[in-house]
Amino acid sequence: MKIAVNTRFLLQNYMEGYGYFIYETFKRITYAHPEDEFIFIFDRPYDNRFIFSSNITPVIAGPPARHPLLWKYWYDVKIPAVLKKYQADIFVSADGYCSLRTKIPQCMVLHDLAFLHFPQFSKRSHLAFYKKYTPEFLKKAKIVVTVSEFSKRDISEHYKIDEKKIDVVYSAAKEVFQPVNENTRNEIKRKYTGGKEYFLYVGAIHPRKNLMNLLKAFSVFKKRQKSNTRLVLAGRLAWKYNSFIDSLKNYKYRDDVILLGYIDEPELIKITGSAYALIYPSLFEGFGVPVLEAMQCHVPVITSSHSSMQEIAVDAALFAEANSFEDIAEKMMRIYKDENLRKELIEKGSMIAKQYSWNRTAELLWRSIRKAVG
Known about the structure:
Elements: E1 2-6, H1 17-32, E2 37-42, E3 56-60, H2 68-85, E4 90-93, E5 106-109, H3 114-117, H4 124-140, E6 143-146, H5 149-159, E7 166-168, H6 182-193, E8 198-202, H7 211-225, E9 230-234, H8 242-249, E10 257-261, H9 265-273, E11 277-280, H10 289-296, E12 301-304, H11 309-313, E13 318-320, H12 325-337, H13 339-353, H14 358-373
Parallel strand pairs: 1-2, 1-4, 2-3, 4-5, 5-6, 6-7, 8-9, 8-11, 9-10, 11-12, 12-13
Helix pairs in contact: 1-14, 7-12, 10-13
């Protein structure tokens, strides 16, 4: 079988959501199925580390597809040409788009419908593209894959898609996210927080991540607890980050907030494993990988009670109303004052994290691909 894969999010300098999903699943799938041929379609020069095995044929189909006009051109002109040239049996696309100009079966991964629930957090041109073409993509794809039961119901209800057409494969945290020793924790705290304990947020600096409410919650925590605990934010500056950065300049506890930017994985593992607790107050998530990363590192979690988070974390996290900074602050104070609760969450989180793995996700995705081929 010849499987063509959209690999435009396998980026040399950094990877996030879609890129990690493709990397982790297809690293396993290509290795497990040496009898099949995989055509990896890039939209720019690629790093050789993304060519995992000898049964992968890399293809560059430019130009780089990084805005709506080029998305349309790439998927409806460049992709069909590659599929025809290499006589692909199926096209797999993990970024929520597919080609409307090919008859070859397609397996499309749609992680969530955040653009529908929070349109204000998308660029206007991007939002128009999503709204116009997502219904067409869902209709065109032979099989739709998503990462939680929440997203499956959301997609089915909004677009009247038969749930039998939608497969849930979940997501996972990398196995390298593991607990760190006491020496590493002390070293990381000396390096970033002057030796002080810290709450950690991991993810893009983006309005949907609800960081303004996190700052307000941290203010309440500092006022009431009189604690020297810090707040560390690890993630790249994404869309509309300027207002957040401007707010930080006049923030009363600015000296207690450490903005790290994008962190390479080996250092991020140490930073995650050394945190007092992870706070992930996002307004909307299809899955929420940082929650599992923290759990694997034996770090307790505070997250939002919205979208998929309660499905994924079950009873192994404290859940706060994302729109209420008072509730987020209350959960921060609870975990700070109750060491027994903190230990209980660590223990439960470790058990929950074991239920998810990239091996499992890759196997489920492979089943969906086979189903789409028919």
